[in-house]
């Protein structure tokens, strides 16, 4: 068995980035930039007022009260075509371009206007209430670097920089095949001993969330022919993921069925719980990740390793966000495998507290759905008491 860290490193190094494509800015959220994004204009393009009031020369209103002649207005989108000279002012509104000659804004509430005259009752200073040209960004400035997953805020920024399209990594195609004679889809008849195939639905949702495109190969029976057919059905995939068939006997089936089709094993078995019987190798040129069939094992291994694989395909960082939490209940000593314990996570007095859920069977989806986090227990960790700190992986985004 190898460690979780070694498995993560070997999986990450096995992938090459997928190609790039151009997408409209309105479709770019949650996509990963394939090249640096540069501004196509300066923002603001000119000095602009951040308040309603009057554009003035600060020197003219250094001593107040003082009365100035109003020579025009500058609402947003309609700049004043002229210059402010000594003793003059221009009525200005939020977002209006500050006219040439003016260097400060007097707030509307600090003035008294009558006809074409305005009396200023409060002094201002140069650049007061003015958003100077380039305050936000300048033309050709790199706004976001390649490898960034675009958030809603990022998309707004790039749109403001006049980018109508961006170059992103295409979505990696993740072929998913469930294996097992006992499996059937939800809502369909099943015979004695049959169970509902459930893990694929959650796995597809995770693939989408992490930036991939799931390709459902369906449920495959436990036959040499069905497993061998994966090589043809997933020929255009960037990664093949199998669910189940990771125990000793089934592992041999994968090797015997896919070996003649070019399958080469990298490693099998990780020193972790749940998820020990994980397979990783390559089917021809395509990496293959064989996840355990128990639903909790499937999820935990996907969270640790499938996430890593997709991040490598997209050339982006998706680091696991470990938190420090205090134990609300004691934990027994751990065995030789790294453990990922389903747990509740709460905040008390500004600190995280965590408590393991009472039953940790790897078949129990109800426990997984109830969990807020996974407590990470190192191999051979000693007993831990209430109040001691442990590391947890939050599940808020899953």
Helix-strand layout with pairing:
Blueprint: H1 4-12, E1 20-24, E2 37-38, E3 48-49, E4 53-56, E5 66-74, E6 88-92, E7 104-107, E8 111-114, E9 117-120, E10 130-131, E11 142-144, H2 152-160, E12 165-169, E13 173-179, E14 183-184, E15 195-196, H3 199-209, E16 213-220, H4 224-228, H5 230-233, E17 239-243, H6 248-258, E18 263-268, E19 272-273, E20 279-283, E21 286-291, H7 295-314, E22 323-327, E23 338-348, E24 351-356, H8 365-370, E25 373-377, E26 389-394
Parallel strand pairs: 5-6, 13-16, 13-17, 14-15, 17-21, 19-23, 22-24
Antiparallel strand pairs: 1-12, 2-11, 3-10, 4-6, 4-7, 5-9, 8-9, 18-20, 20-21, 22-26, 23-24, 23-25, 25-26
Helix pairs in contact: 1-7, 3-7
Structure description:
- A hairpin with a 2-residue loop joins strand 23 and strand 24.
- The chain folds into four domains: 4-16 and 171-314, MoaB/Mog-like domain (Molybdenum Cofactor Biosythetic Enzyme, Chain A); 21-43 and 142-169, Molybdopterin biosynthesis moea protein, domain 2, CATH 3.90.105; 48-131, Molybdopterin biosynthesis moeA protein, domain 3, CATH 2.170.190; 323-394, MoeA, C-terminal, domain IV (Beta-clip, Beta Barrel), CATH 2.40.340.
- A six-stranded mixed beta sheet has the order 7-4-6-5-9-8, with no helix packed on it. A six-stranded mixed beta sheet has the order 16-13-17-21-20-18, sandwiched between helices.
- Helix content is 19%, strand content 31%.
- The chain is α/β, with parallel strands linked by helices.
- The radius of gyration is 31 Å and the shape is elongated.
- The chain contains eight helices and 26 strands.
- The mean pLDDT is 95.
- The chain has helices spanning 4-12, 152-160, 199-209, 224-228, 230-233, 248-258, 295-314, 365-370; strands at 20-24, 37-38, 48-49, 53-56, 66-74, 88-92, 104-107, 111-114, 117-120, 130-131, 142-144, 165-169, 173-179, 183-184, 195-196, 213-220, 239-243, 263-268, 272-273, 279-283, 286-291, 323-327, 338-348, 351-356, 373-377, 389-394.
